[in-house]
Amino acid sequence: MPVVPAFDVSHVVAFVNKYADPPREAAGEQETPYPDPAPLLDWPDGLPLPTGGDLVKAANAVFPVFAAARDGRALDELNALLRAVRPLPVAAPGGLRWTVGDPADVLPAALATCLLAWLMTHGQARLGICQAARCADVFTDSSPAGQRRFCSATCLNRHKVAAYRRRASARKGR
Question: Looking at the predicted structure, is the pLDDT value of residue 88 above 90?
Answer without folding.
Answer: yes
